[in-house]
Design brief:
By secondary structure, the chain is an alpha/beta fold. The protein contains 14 helices and ten strands. The strands form four sheets. A four-stranded parallel β-sheet has the order 2-1-3-4. Strands 5-6 form a two-stranded antiparallel sheet. It has a two-stranded antiparallel sheet with strand order 7-8. Helix 3 packs across helix 4, helix 4 runs antiparallel to helix 5 and helix 7 runs parallel beside helix 8. The longest helix has about 35 residues.
């Protein structure tokens, strides 16, 4: 097992350069890249539009004015949201979504300011629309490029988001460094001070004296090395020790941070939230916020209602063909679990000669004799799922979400697969992230179902409206969405 002494060479290598001042230049550089990128986008779209429509380059002063106007709003919005801090550029996760959101705010703000200042008529509407459309991929590309460079520079020790003094118990310090390798994530650990573990037979005054001596050494070390922050690698259960550490470092111009307990490694975005005077550590947020729930529900209502109206002739033809092909009802209704494991009956076009809905349900297999001739065709092209638009209108399902399984299968896999039931934290969908990756059909092994669940949970944790739109398009256009259909 590694010790703190074993890890010191990595710290020495990471801390060879005093590179803290570089982080301010990086922040300025990322803002400059954004400004130049937006200038270039506006300039290119303006020149291209005017040349294509009017066979000339357009007004140079107006193009420059428009470019500076939009670029300034974009950079100012990023600054207000503190997106130019070095720590925001150490990972590519969420960067594209953040850039897209800021770009939307920028264009709305530009239109509002232009209207209030009565200057909107000075600029071509065609150029503005083209700028918005072209800016979505180009800004995302520029942001990806910046993150790539910053991330590499951080991992090679050329820049650091924060210079840190690590203080704590040796076991916790070793665990923290082994798990997180902070020198690869923007933290430059300048030095470490071990708080000695008291022996069981020590009296309370002796324990306090030992801790006071170690903290005095740590404070002296902090005054010499002048770090940006102090990380306390102490078990959170040792409340008295943590409070003594905080009291000791409160008199220094540094940030004080509690190194994360290992349980937090399970979660992507734990954060402190405050409600009134109560502060708590939120390890998992609700799957969707209230505004997101409203947006998703409106999208579902408009989409489902529109599709039902357009597909009514298809429903009629399919119903007739089902009746002609085999005996039985047009629709097959089976119990499923929805949001929060609330039971509902799902609508499907009947594709089998049986209507199973009991405690034991045999999954459909390839060349299953229970599947009717016309039913096989319906299943191949996912047409049997279309009646679930009714479930969407009733609020039982969403257009996109984890696919609901029969109750018998849900009960089976809840006991086998960790976090399987978390799929019910959102409404089930007619199509989903797993389905467009070809993960559908028979799950004859637990691994197949576990893989499907992994994709479903990723969707829950990363939902946004554009992801739903992309999944719907892939459901219709991607060959994977039709694979394993039987």
């Amino acid at each position: 097992m590694k010790t703190v002494q074993d890890l010191k060479p990595a710290l020495v290598m990471a801390g060879e350069r005093d590179v803290a001042n570089w982080r301010y230049l990086v922040s300025l550089g990322t803002a400059l890249v954004d400004f130049i990128a937006v200038l270039g986008i506006v300039w290119a779209t303006s020149v291209g539009y005017h040349f294509a429509v009017y066979q000339h380059m357009g007004s140079f002063p107006l193009t420059v004015e428009l470019a500076v106007f939009i670029a300034s709003i974009f950079c100012f919005t990023n600054m207000l949201q503190r997106r130019y801090r070095l720590t925001r550029h150490l990972t590519s996760k969420g960067q594209i979504v953040e850039a897209f959101n800021v770009w939307n705010v920028t264009m709305v703000a530009f239109i509002a300011i232009g209207f209030l200042a009565k200057v909107g008529d000075n600029y071509s509407r065609g150029v503005i629309i083209l700028t918005y459309v072209a800016g979505i991929p180009l800004i995302a590309l520029a942001r990806w490029w910046v993150v790539k460079i910053v991330s590499i520079a951080s991992k090679t020790g050329r820049i650091a988001a924060q210079r840190v003094l690590l203080v704590g118990r040796e076991a916790e310090m070793t665990s923290f460094m082994t798990r997180h390798q902070p020198w690869n994530t923007g933290l430059m650990i300048q030095d470490m001070v071990i708080l000695r573990q008291p022996k069981p037979d020590m009296t309370e005054p002796v324990r306090e004296a030992l801790l006071a001596e170690d903290l005095a050494h740590a404070v002296a070390q902090a005054r010499r090395s002048r770090p940006d922050g102090v990380y306390l690698a102490v078990p959170w259960s040792e409340r008295d020790v943590i409070e003594r550490c905080i009291d000791a470092f409160m008199n220094l111009p540094v940030s004080i941070n509690l190194a994360p307990e290992q349980v937090l490694d399970r979660f992507d975005n734990p954060r402190i939230i405050r409600i009134g005077s109560i502060a708590s550590l939120e390890v998992t947020p609700p799957p969707l916020s209230l505004p997101e729930l409203v947006i998703k529900r409106l999208f579902d209502l408009v989409g489902a209602a529109t599709l039902l109206v357009l597909l009514l002739p298809v429903f009629a033809v399919v119903a007739i063909l089902i009746k002609c092909d085999s005996k039985g009802p047009v629709f097959f209704m089976q119990r499923r679990f929805g949001f929060n494991q609330q039971e509902f009956r799902i609508f499907k076009f009947r594709t089998m000669s049986t209507m199973e809905d009991g405690d034991v349900i045999r999954q459909a297999t390839r060349n299953d004799p229970r599947i009717t001739r016309f039913g096989a065709w319906l299943r191949q092209y996912n047409i049997d799922e279309l009646p679930q638009l009714i479930n969407v209108l009733l609020g039982q399902m969403s257009l996109v979400g984890p696919r609901p399984h029969a109750l018998a299968h849900d009960r089976e896999y809840v006991a086998k697969i960790s976090l399987y039931a978390r799929r019910h934290n959102v409404k089930p969908g007619i199509t989903g992230w797993a389905q467009v990756h070809g993960l559908r059909g028979e799950t004859d092994t637990d691994d197949k179902m576990a893989n499907r669940v992994t994709y479903d949970l990723w969707y829950i944790d990363n939902w946004n409206l554009w992801l739903d739109v992309a999944i719907l398009l892939r459901t219709v256009l991607s060959r994977k969405a039709f694979s394993n259909a039987h």
